[in-house]
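Data availability (excerpt). The following record was deposited with the supplementary files.
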Amino acid sequence: DQWRGFLTDRGAEVRFTDGLTVTGPSSYPGFTVNLRAVGELTPTIAAIAAFADGPSSLTGIGHLRGHETDRLAAIATELRRVGIVVDEREDGLDIDPAGRVAQTDVTLQTYADHRMATMAAVLALRIPGLKIADPQTTAKTMPDFVERWKAMLA
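Predicted structure:
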C-alpha cells in the first residue's frame, strides 16, 4: 500500500501486530512525491514534510481544492501558523521547514475537515503545547479517534 511504502521510503519501520506500529527515523531528508492517486494522504504527508531535514514538494493535488475545504490553502495556512514556509501552487505545495521556529500557544483550525484534524494531530506529536480546534471532526472516518489518540499518548 502507498502509505506504508511512503513511510518505509523515509526510513520508518512499519509493523502490523495487534495494531499498527510505526517507528522512527529520527530524521529524514525532504522529498518530492506525486499524490494524485492518494490525495487523501496529503494533509498527513504535509505534516511529515514539516519535520524533514530539507524542502519537500507535494504534487498532483490540485483537485484537493474542491473537498470539504480548499485543502491546499488550509494546509498552507495551518503550517504557516507553526512557522513552516509554504509555497502554495495551483497543483501542489512546496514545504520548507528550515525556518521553523518554536511556536507556543497556537491553535490549529480543522475547517470541519477530518483530514485537517489528522494533520494537526501529527503536528502536535512534535510541537509541544499545540492545540487543535474541533478534533472531533475526525468522527467522519474514525468515530473513536480522540479516545484512541489519548490512549496512545498515555
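Summary of structural features: The chain has one domain: 2-153.
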